[in-house]
Structure formats: structure tokens, C-alpha cells
Amino acid sequence: MGSRASTLLREEEIEEIKKETGFSHSQITRLYSRFTSLDKGENGTLSREDFQRIPELAINPLGDRIINAFFPEGEDQVNFRGFMRTLAHFRPIEDNEKNKDPSGTEPLNSRNNKLLFAFRLYDLDRDDKISRDELLQVLRMMVGVNISDEQLGSIADRTIQEADQNGDNSISFSEFIKVLEKVDVEQKMSIRFLH
Amino acid sequence: MPRQKLIATESDVSVEVETEDNAETADRGLEEESSEVVACHKTARRGHGRSASKVKEKKPQEVQARRSKVKEKRKVLRDQCKEEDGQNEDVPKRSNNHRNKRTKTEQRGDFKRKTKDEGDEERSNISPQEGGTELRVKIKTKGAKKLKKREEKVETSRALSRFSSESEELSEEESEEQKEVLTQEELEILKEAVEEKKKLIANLRAKPWPMKKKLITLRESQEFVEKYEGALGKGKGRKFYAYKVLMVKKWMKFQRDFENFKTACIPWEMKIKEIESHFGSSVASYFIFLRWMYGMNMILFGLTFGLVMVPEALMGRPYGSVPRKTVPRSEQASAMDFAVLWDFGGYAQYSVLFYGYYSDQRAVGWLKFRMPLSYFLVGVGTVAYSYMVVIRTMARNANRDGGGDDTSFNFSWKMFTSWDYLIGNPETADNKFASITTNFKESIVEEQESHKDENIHLTWFLRVLANFLVLCCLAGSGYLIYFVVRRSQKFALEGLENYGWWERNEVNMVMSLLGMFCPMLFDVISSLENYHPRIALQWQLGRIFALFLGNLYTFIIALMDEINLKRKEEEVVKYNMTIWEASLYNGTAADNATTAPVDPADVPRGPCWETMVGQEFVRLIVSDTMTTYITLLIGDFLRAVFVRFFNYCWCWDLEYGFPSYSEFDVSGNVLGLIFNQGMIWMGAFYAPCLPALNVLRLHVSMYLQCWAVMCCNVPQERVFKASGSNNFYMAMLLVILFLSTLPAIYTIVSVPPSFDCGPFSGKNRMYDVIQETLQSDFPAWFGKVFNYASNPGLVLPFILVMVLAIYYLQSTSKTYKAANLDLKKKLQTQNEENKKKNKKAALKAEAELEEARNAAVSKQERNVCSQQSRMETRTFCEGVPPPGDV
Fold first, then answer.
1. What are the C-alpha distances in Å from B81 to residues B74, B84, B158?
2. Which has the least CB within 10 A, B21, B288, B323, B788?
3. Which strand (E) or helix (H) includes residue B545?
4. What pLDDT shows up at residue B718?
């Protein structure tokens, strides 16, 4: 499997992905074989249905949102580059990456980018704000029909009341960061990719 | 860019540099070695740390070789510089600086040749004659140029251009001064340039250039990076660099492998992870706790096994040599029966497993191992180690949870972080789903509950009633155990042989059954109380804890009674012994001819209460283990089998209806584990085999429970947060540790040991072994010091000081906590105020906006009106119909 995958993947592509995402060569080939095994249409891209076949995503109430995060705006297919770009958010932050100069472009797996990824899960209309309606939709996904609308509404209100700082009745990204300040996002939003 | 100004400053400073360079050339030419000039040099070289004396020492051959090297390098750098220039042309943003630079590089091109020649001349023949005016002029221009570059550096601040200029300068300077390795600063610059290129590559996509340009730039920068990344050092430096890079890569790989290896080495990690993914973190927390216990017991086992059991078995007197190491004649017939051995009687009783077997020889074997002392110290060390480990773990846990304040973003956290993304099993996902729902419901309830207080009298009445009932249960169970233990003593006095299996195992069975059914009863009672589920769970845990504790202590009190009984018996035996010995002496004296040695099996002996206590504990542990396993098999496995297979032919749905599958009861299991450990701590002094038994039990438990959980349990409905309750378990463990060491310490300190068995036989108290060791094995002064130190006059003040220190520390920590709370409150209020202010500002801005809009609209309207009117008038004048709506 691995050898087949690596033959299909061109060396310069690997190099580019390596530069963009920071994955190692073997990680890329391994993930590529995973990619091809997910790709049932065998056209080099993944569709939403391909993702929905992953059990962890299928049972996740926010699975649709996560799958959505893989796709660029308005597209139905994601190629290996895009796939890797999304996965790069979950690469653990290594020690030698921490003390890099802050002036450069942030790597995809920085704390901010990880948080931004999480934020996008909730920001359904991509206006960089989580509004009350968006919260209600996500809540609906998470609890189903077990709680009345009124109660969900009050939960959403409370959430906004807690997090909102500038009084616009929605949660902006900076407020989102503030909320999750104490959460160890670097560690929690990391997957140990095999080498 | 203010070119004029730049030139002005150049000329200003160039004078200064000229003098410096003059001094330099003079110095070089005349080979003067004045320290001042050297210092001057250093300043002229901007602290590059090259001293002139070094230059002078260099030999001509080296010079030659180096020169060629330098030439090479210069070429490379020049190429690269060109590359850079070409590339810079592509950058429209940089055109400003860039024009500047172009001119400079052109100039430089001229200079380069000159300086090269000059440098060659200089190098090939360093003589005083050459230091003429011509040279000085050249150097002057060079100095000016250098300064220009310096200026440029300040002005542009762009690493790329800086690099090109610097490297140019560098090559010249090197050719002039024959440097062989790059200095740190230059290396940094080069690195920076490489970094810059890399960044350029990363950002290239976003640049607003045509595709062709992008491609060219990309290729060029990639080439550059490839070329210079590995070759940051030159010559020796390059090799070293390559070596370093290689080593770093190897090291990283090794570290990664080592990490993997470490994870693979953590026992049961994979099993626990699998369980975690199926059952959530609370069930996993039980197994992690179990593993922690296993680790601790391993160490306890190592201590007792290595320092007590093995030395006695290898170096002590062998079995059958002394009465305490021999099975008495009356028991020998049945000593190998399985029933007896299962009860830890017979040969098991007279072995290293129990206290009584150990002899009171002061030193055993050729190592002169101090057996009694070791036994005592291991007993104390076990307890001390356990305290240390438990408290350390607690402190670490407290530190870990102590950081966050969960109150301020309660709902947000529930909202954003409640889903466990590692769950991969649909069933667990459903449960998590449900638990999130309950969690939200709970928090809604909590919100509501903080406002309402209705029918408080009824609630209070019910709660008091429930507690009363629970107390009754506890008292009843305590009495039952006491009664059973007394009865078993009666049986024991009359001889166990006349009774059946139930009478023999009554105590243990009753304790196990109570432990099984009382919690269920408590559960029913607690439904009266109408507590919040989390609080209810804590009450439940507390009550079960109290029950177990009560049972344990009743058991201990009964044991104490038994100890007293045995000691009375011992007195009698002691008295009989003297008579027997006298008769024996008389008999042998009468016989006179043969001193027939008495078989140790025939010697009458005392009851040895220590071994009895040890046996009781071992039996308790074994029966407890058995009950656990059997309930596991029946309650979980058979139930699961029944539910699974009878579901096909049953009138209602068994799987979702009444029996269903069992849940994994985390709290009950944890409590069981904790109490088991308490018994180990209590009994370990009298039965050194207990830690070994416990290790075995935990090991089997681990596999059995892992299997049982995966095969016949369903995930809990009420998934409570595991990390929070972890320290709760630890606190219970600490309480149990304290309570279980109390009786052990009491018996060690206040009950005299048996006269004819165990390592302390013949002593008044067990701790006398310390005194004995001090007197015989240590120099006299040490004993004296110890005596003084253990004087109450010294110990009491010491304890007082310690108490005071603890008090002080606690009060300071309390103050800190209060201050923390205050600050938190302040922050919160500030936040709220800010929020309000912002809201107000937002409202105001909105209002203003609205007003402005209104004003604009009205103005427009007015305009329109006036226009209309004007138009109307015009139309009126011209006779054209007015437009309908403007």
C-alpha cells in the first residue's frame, strides 16, 4: 500500500507539502495511502460522502462541520493538498517550533490557527462571528430534540453573555480566544501522526 | 530615500574611518604592536573580534590556500548577489530601495576589482614600503563605501539587501584579512537571508505577480535555499555544519523512536486507551488508578520481598530447625491438606509468608544481615513510602487542577468543549450525546435551583430521615459483623473441624455481602433526598466509605479482643513451658546417657497472635478477591450472556428493558480498590506476603476487568468528569491509609510481641530492636546523641515548632487564596463594567448613526423636496410633467 502510494505521489509534490504543512516525508506518504483508501471514487479527490464513511465523523454531531472544514468555500471536492492543509492544523507543536521568530507567517499548527479551526466549526456563515442563531444550530446538533427550544435559547443567551465583551450579541474570534484561554488547545487539538 | 543626506553622513564619517584605516595600515605596515592601535582596530572592525596580531602570524602558504578559497567564495557570493539583484527587480515594492542599491552595486563592481588587487598586493607582501598614500586613498574610498553600506543597513532594514551588501563587504574584508570561517554575526545574517527566502517561498502564492514571475522567483529562491541552507559554514565550518545537521536529524529521529518506545513500555496503555475510547474517561480513570496502585504495590512488594522474605528464606535457619519454623506434631497429619492450606494454615502458616516464622537471630547469614531490624524498618518504610507517594500524587493533581477557574465561562466551555472527539464507537457516542444533554439540563436545573427554594421543610425532613436510615444501616451492619466475629471466635475455641464451610467463612462472607447489598440500599434511600446528582454521588460515595470503614473497624476491634484472648492463653502456655522444660531437664538428667534432642515439632508453643492477625488479613483479602471475581463473572458475564442469548426468545426486550447489560460501576470499584489497599497496609506488618498477594490480585484484576468491561458492560449513562474526582479518590486513599496504619502502629507500640515466635520474640516491645541496634552496632556517642534527641524535652518543642510551621503555612496559603479570590472578583466586575460600557458605547454609536442617517435622510428629503419644487416650478414653467418618484 505504502509503496503504491508513494509512487503515485510525485517527489516535488511531497516537497511542497512538506514545506507548507511541516509534515515529514514518511508522514506524508502514510497519509497519502490513507487518503487513497478513503477515496472510493479513485479520482484523486475526496467528496463529502468519502468523509462521512469515517465512523468517528459519522457519529460526531459536529461531524458535518468538521467535514465542511476540509472543503474550500463552494467546492465539493478536496485534493490531497487541501486534505493535508487541513490535517496540518492538528500537527502537534514541537519544541523547536515554539521559539521561532513571531514575525514570520504562522505555521498551520499554531495555537491561533488551531483555535481558528475550532472557531470556524461554529461560525456557520463564515462572517467571523458566532451569532446566537449559529449557537442554537450547533446546540441542536449536540443535544437533538431532548431539550426545549426555550431552554436552548437560554443556554445560547448565557453563553453569549459570558463570552461577549463588546456588546454586539455575538462571539468574535478574539472573544473566542479569550474563552478558551485556559484550555490547553496546543495539546488537546493535536494528533500524534505516525512517523 | 534621502540620498543627499546619506552622502553627507558618509563623507562626515568617512574622515573618521580614514584615520582609523590609516592607523590600521600604518600598524600593519610598520608592524607596531601597540595595544592602543589594536584596540582601535577592534573598533574599526565593528567588534568582529579580529585582532591584527592574528593576521600577522599567518604564514604565506596558508595565505595562498586561503586566497584561492576566498576567491571561490567571492565568486559564489557575487553570483548570488546577481541573482538577488535579478530577483529584486521582480519585486515592485522594493523598487525604491532597489534603485539605490543598483547604483551601489555598480559602484561596488568597480571597487571590487580594485580592492581585490589591493588585497592581493597587501597579502602577498606586507611590507612597510607599501603603506603609501596610494593605498591610503584606496582605503579611504573603501572605508567610505563600507560606511555607505552601514548606512544602507540602517536605512533599509531588509535582510535580503543587507545580506547582499554584507556578503559583498564580507568577501572583500575576508580577502583583505584572510578570514577562514564566518563569524557568528555573518552567519546569522546568512541564516536570516535563507529564512527570508523560505518565507518568500511560503508567501509566494499570495503575491500579486504574474505566474511566470512567480515561477521564476520560486525556482530561484528554492535553489538559493538548497544551496545555502546546508552550506552555511564554509570549509571546516561547512563540514561541521553538515555534521551537526546530520546529528540533529539523527537525534530527532532517536528521540521520536524513544518516545514511541516509552509509550509502548507503559504497561496496559493500549488496553486503557481502547477502554477510554469505548467508555469515556471516567472508566479509564479507574483503570489508571488501578495501574497506579499496581505500581505502588510493586514497590511495596519489592521492599518486603527483597529485604525480608528472601533473606530469611536463604540465610535464616532452615525449616524444621527451631519450633517456630516447624509444624506442630498435632497438626502435621493435615498440614498438607488443600483445605488447610487454602485457609493459610499448616505448612503455609509456618513459612516466610507470616510473621511467626521469622527468627530472632540478630544477624543472619554470612552477610550478617540484621533480620529483626530489617523487618521493623521495612514495616515502617512501607507505611512511610505509601504516605509519601499518596501525598505527592495529591499535590500534583491539585496543582494540575488548581490553575483554571471554571466558573467564569461555564456555559461557553460546555458549548465549545463538551464533545469528546476521540470517541469512535456509536454506542459511546450516543451516551456522550445523552450525557451532554443531561449536562445541559443539569446546568439549567442548577441555574433554576439557585433562585428557587420551595417546600424546604419537606426536603429537610426527608434528608434527615434518609440520614437516619443510613445511620441505622451502618449501625446494623457494624453490629452484625461484631456478632459474627464473636461467634467465629467461639467456633475457633471449640475447634473448627466440627463446623461446615459456612461457619468457617462466616466473617468474610458477611463482610462481602454487606459490602454488596448496603450500597444498593443506600442508593434507594438517597432517592428520598432529592439532591443534585453530583452531590448525591458524593453522598453515596461517602456513605459506602463509612460502611466499609465501620466494617473494617469492627473487624479490627474484634481482632483486638482476640489478640487479648491469645495473650492470656500465651501466659498459660508460658507457665506450662517452664514446667515442661523443667520436666524435660529432669528427664534428661535422669537418663543421663543420651541427650535425646527434642524434636522441634514436639515443643509446646504459644498461640502467636501476630501470625493469627496476619492470617486473618490474608484470608480477608483472598475472600474479597474471590467475591469480586465471582460477582464480576455472575453479575456481568452471565448476565450479559443471558441478556444476549435469551433476547431471541423472551417476551420483552431484554437488552433495553429490565435486566439489560450492566454498567461499569466506577465508584464502587474504586472504593473496593481503596479498601483492599487499606487492608494491605494494615496487615502487611504481620504477613509479609500481603503485598505480593495484592500485586497478583491487581494483575489478574487488570486483565479480567479489562476483558469484562470490553465484553459485557455498556457505557455509563451518567458520565461524570473524571479529572475532578481523581483527587477525591486520592483523598479517600489518604484517609484509609491513616486509619489503617493507626491499629498497626498501636499494636506495634503497645502490645508486647509473642515470646516464642517472630523476629521480636523475647523483647518487651517491638521497637526495642532500634535501641538494641543502637547499643550494639553503633558507636557509643551515637547512642548518646540519639538518647538525647529522643528526650521528650527535645521532641516536644520540635513537634511544637512543626505544628506552628504548619499553622503558619496554612494561614498564609489561606490568605493567598482569599487574595486570589478577591482579585478574581475584581477582574470579573471589571469585565462586566467593561461590557456594560461597551454596550453603552455601542448603543450610543448606533443611536448616533441612526440620528445621522435620519438627518441625512431628512436632508435628502429636503433636497428632494426643494429639487422637486424647483423642478415643479421648472415644469410648471416649461410645461413638462414631473417625474413620478425621485
1. 10, 5, 14
2. B788
3. helix B533-591
4. 54
